[in-house]
Design a protein that fits this description.
The protein is mostly helical. The protein is built from three helices and no strands.
Length: 65
Amino acid sequence: MKTIRLVLAVLALLPSAIRADEIEDAINSALKLYKEGKLNEANTGLQTAVSLLNEKSGASLSSAL
């Protein structure tokens, strides 16, 4: 649980331009947690990945406008 909180804290400090690698890292981390049977933490990791994707999509849309 401490790891998830640390990851979320670090993500909050990142600029709005999110690199795809960070999204991939969040997905891979969630997959690892899932394989370890840590379902709540895996769910949080996937939600983080979705948030990063949404943020990236929003940044792309705003730059297009």
